[in-house]
Amino acid sequence: MATGGIRYQYARLSIAEKLIAINIAVFIVVGLLTNLVLPTLEGWFVLPASINRFLAQPWSLVTYGFLHSGILHLLWNMYVLFISGRILLNLFDNKRFINIYFLGIMLGGMFFLLTDVLFLQSNSVLLGASAGVMAVLIFVCTYIPNQEVRIIFFNVKLWQVGLFVVLVDLIQISNGGFNFGGRVAHLGGAFLGYMYARQLMQGRDIGAGFSKFLDGLANLFKPKGKKASMKTVYKNKASVKQSKVKRDKDSQQRQIDTILDKISKSGYESLSKAEKDFLFKAGKED
Fold first, then answer.
1. What is the pTM of this model?
2. Hey, how many other C-beta atoms are within 10 angstroms of the C-beta on 148?
3. What is the pLDDT averaged over residues 163-177?
């Protein structure tokens, strides 16, 4: 497939699918470079449990989430992200998804760093998207707990799925089992997802500040055009247009809020097809 075709296909993906594609690409590229050229490359991007080592590579609080220990680790994380991401993006826009995912990655990393202070795990490292995936999964399990999903031959409610995965991690931690630090990071991501959903249900978006930070970061790289004179000439027309756009967005948001209230009370399946389509299209536009 030509480069233009690949870009076109990539642009059509949802934000969750784009993250999956990036994770797969990073896994392949890092694997090749580590085995063929730079055997120490991965060490610069994994998150070390040692606070002192972390301070030497602070970017690892985010970059560790794009690395995986093996193909099964990668596939499982991407599968859960695909399923839970689709549910979340039927409810909210891309920005909300990004907030939950990356704040989950970072809080999971912080929980992991605490293992150095509390349990002296200084020689271990953390890698994998599990904390971000857990944040997304537990968010939807908390926000629409009575929504049913199909697992093999059975229908189960999302709150049951969320409870099960958290209990597995708690049991593994209490037994001092394999991947102790990773399990702690999972709980950090789960805690973020739970708190984000609970606060959002009360009208507070705890990721708003992070979203503004990302917007500011993106604006630094936007080209600045010379259109000052045009703004003066078309000021009145632009104001009218902006006012209409704002009214349309306000109306759309009121519809979204009404549908989300219905979901929180009666579950996602209580929505009509038109309401589900409206949510899906609203998520795509952002």
1. 0.78
2. 15
3. 89
